[in-house]
Structure formats: structure tokens, C-alpha cells
Amino acid sequence: MKIKNILTVLGILVGGQILAQQNIQAFYADSLQIEVDSARGQFQWQISYDSINWSPIAGQQTVVLSTIADSFPAFFRLEITEGSCDPWYSEVLQVNEATALVCGDSVSHGFVAGITPDGSIAFAFRTYTTVQANWPGLGGNKCWTKMNIGALVEADSATDPNPDAAGWYFQFNRSQGYALTATGRIPNTTWINPINENLDWQPANDPCTQYLGGDWRIPTQAEWNAFLNASTANGGVGGQTGLIADAFASTLKLHAGGNLSGGDGSSANLGNWGLFWSGVQNSNNTAGSFRFSGVGSFPVNATKNFGYPVRCILDTP
Fold first, then answer.
1. What is the Cβ-side half-sphere exposure of residue 147, based on CA atoms within 13 angstroms?
2. Is 124 within 8 Å of 140 (Cβ atoms)?
3. Backbone torsions φ then ψ of 300, nearest 5 degrees
4. DSSP label of 292
5. CA torsion 171→177→180→185, rounded to 10°?
6. In this structure, are residues 45 and 78 in contact, taking their beta carbons and an 8 Å threshold?
């Protein structure tokens, strides 16, 4: 798996042990790409195995470090020099060895070009809680993320308007994630409209697969339907009479994070509707989704150009 992370330049090193400002997990032989968000001067990436004694990494003298995870824990930082000034240093990234996921553990990812809204530090790293499903039918024995892709926090309520809980929005079978901020949509690129193609959501465009690894993906419509029809006692919504409060009280703790308009990508329905893509199309311009509101919960064939939040499911039980 390829892991990308962004660090910030901090300042002059005082001395002694440097605590890591960022921590990630990687498996042995994972590809690591680490970069600083902005810097000038001469660059030299350094590595340490105790965060005290640092050594230069041969051939790594740009703002981007490309390396392989082969020893744990490992610490990385960028040394920056310019003229006769004392050196400056980036944040320290600590890389720990990943272990097989136990559902209920958290999963994390860094920046991935073409998926993360932009390369700023605000979007550089995310950690999601996971939860074990326990309802009849497809997906009812699998591990799901308990947060939307891109979310910083779990929602505080069924109608939480916080964009940090809503996470990022995606058009169907498009990898680019979009964030809502106080200044508008990021990225504020031309909205894709219409989308007309005979494709389910492809793994190369699936943010779950690309962020969390090949065993993760967007749920199918059948898996969402099983959750919709599962009783509240089993962690589901309780059928089509299930309301926003039932979705929030469910195992998945869904909330009304709204959507981006299919016409122009503007924000809509935040706090009123919960809408989530499935990974399966219905036609060249529509795809399956799960929708809930104050009047009920339904499977809906939505136009592919809408931007919806995404949850992830692990393909192994």
C-alpha cells in the first residue's frame, strides 16, 4: 500500500529527544511518500530509530521523501538550511508497524493526490473509528467505518451541522473528495455534470480502497438495504419508517450530513437529510444510495453527479 503524509516546518531544533507530531502505521514494505507543506533552501531528509540520533537519508534531498517501511518504529524529519542560517526542521513523523485490524480499532490514512480535497495541512491526516455489524443479511457480519470518509469527528447529534462530522463528498465513481468550509467548497473546480457511463464504482476511484487498502470498499446497495431493514435492536434503522434519530442511534451512527447539489456542487440538506452512496450503478446516469430524513428511510436511485458522503466496509468478516 502507498501511504502519503504532509508535514509542517516547525523551526530551529533546540536539542534532545524530539517527540513526534504525527504518527502513522504501515506494514513492512509499504511505500511511504512524505512531504512538507512549504519550504525553501537546501533539503536533507533524516531518519532516526530513537528520535534522538539522526542520520541523513542518501539521495533524499527534495521536499518529498520516497522510501520503504522496513524498520519500526522509525522517525522522519526534513532538515532545511539556507546560507549561514541555523538549520530548520519539519515536524517529526513516527512510523509504527501496523497490525491486523480488530474491528473496533481505528483506521487511518494520509494525503492521497486526486482524492484528498487539497494538499494543505488541514486535510493531511484522518483517523476513523470502526464498528462490527450484527444484523441479518449482506454486510451484517462485517466491519464498517463509524465515521464518514474525511470526517475529523463522530457526529454529536442526528442533525449535527458540523462539516468536520460530515466529512468529504464524492460524485459517483469519481475519486475526488470535496470538503465544505466557511469559504465554500474545496476544491472549487468545475462541477462534473452530467455523469453518463456504464460503470459501477471502480476500485481505482473508490476512496475506501485507495485510503484504507484493498479489503475496504464502498458498500453495495444490497448491504445498505440489509442495514435499512434490520431492526433497531440489531443495530439497523428498523425499515422504511426509520427516521433520522433511528439512523443516529444505529450501530453505524449515521447523521444528516446532507449532500452537494448535482447541478453545481453547492451545499444542500445539511442537518435535514442523510445520503450515502452505494458502489453499484442502476443505469448509465443513476446509482444506488441510502437516504433517510424526518419522514423515513429509503433506497434511492440517485443521479451520479450528486456529491454524497461515503462509508466503508471491510470485505473480510
1. 24
2. no
3. -135, 135
4. E
5. -80
6. yes
The Cα 13–Cα 103 span in angstroms is: 39
Task: Report pTM.
Answer: 0.77
Between CA 242 and CA 250, with CA 245 as vertex, the angle to 5 degrees is 75
What pLDDT digit, counting tens, does each position of 40-90 carry? 899 999 999 988 899 999 999 998 898 889 999 999 999 999 988 889 888
Asked if pLDDT for residue 17 goes beyond 90, the answer is: no
User: Domains in the chain and their CATH numbers?
Assistant: 2-97 (2.60.40), 106-314 (no CATH)
Give the tens place of pLDDT for each residue, 87-120.
Answer: 988 888 888 888 788 999 998 887 888 899 998 8
C-alpha cell at 174: 469519481
Q: Which residues contact 115 (CB under 8 A, 6 or more apart)?
A: 175, 176, 177, 207, 210, 211
At position 238, the amino acid (one-letter code) is: G
For residue 265 the three cell numbers come to 456542487
